[in-house]
Amino acid sequence: MMKLYETRVAPNPRRVRIFLAEKGLLDQVELIEVDLQKGDNLTREYAARNPLKKVPVLELEDGTCIAETMAICRYVEEAFPDTPRLLGTTALEKAHVEQWLRWIDFYFMMPTGMAFQHTTGFFKDRMTPYPEWGEECKRQAARFFDFLDRSLSDSRYLCGDEFTAADINALCALDFNKAIQQRITPEQQNLRAWHERLYERPSVSA
Fold first, then answer.
1. pLDDT-derived band at 19, boundaries 50, 70, 90
2. CATH second-level architecture of 2-79?
């Protein structure tokens, strides 16, 4: 059985968990909790799985380890071709999904993560927080809420009418904004409808 080393409340492992659930593969993976605050990820044993000491990590049955969220998702997409496709089917669909994945990572998840690290003090024992930088990152993340709302004005999902990994990643980043006290505003009706639509999917609560 494959093993997924994760921190359940963290957004990146959640992306993988939803991805696996959408493909009907979650019961084929053993979930192993990694306590980041206690430093479980800083041990020599964990560093052997991922030298950057981050979560998530997928360990295959032969002991091979894959780190990084999208690397894990791409492996699963290719290794289980008979499951629902979440990274696109045609060349254009794949490009469109990839475009959104990069936008979400660089302009939404990254500033959200930096705002969390630099304003909450969660990792102050292993880094130097810069609160002003954290507040700027928080503003950047808030602007992406508006971008998502506009992008969803004429489609059910980010890449049209089909649910993809782009929706998974955007949802996990958006929900993690609660940790920095940011939520969907009443004016962002398209975004709210999309968010509610996604929460109707059983995978989102996996």
1. very high
2. 3-Layer(aba) Sandwich (3.40)
Q: What angle do CA 71, 183, 18 make, to 5 degrees?
A: 30
Contact of 204 with 171, CB cutoff 8 Å = yes
Q: 3.40.1360.10, 2.60.40.10, 3.40.30.10, 1.20.1050.10: which CATH number matches 91-201? A: 1.20.1050.10
14-18 contact pairs (CB < 8 A, 24+): 14/172, 14/175, 15/69, 15/73, 15/165, 15/168, 15/169, 15/172, 16/56, 16/58, 16/69, 16/72, 16/73, 17/206, 18/168, 18/171, 18/172, 18/203, 18/204, 18/206
Q: pLDDT at residue 25 above 90?
A: yes
Per-residue pLDDT reduced to its tens digit, 96-109: 999 999 999 999 99
List the domain boundaries for the chain. 2-79, 91-201
Task: Name all contacts of 51-54 with Cβ < 8 Å and 24+ positions apart.
Answer: 54/12
Q: What is the pLDDT of residues 32-57, one digit of tens each?
A: 999 998 999 999 999 999 999 999 99
The tens digit of pLDDT for each residue in 59-93 reads 999 999 999 999 999 999 999 999 999 999 999 99
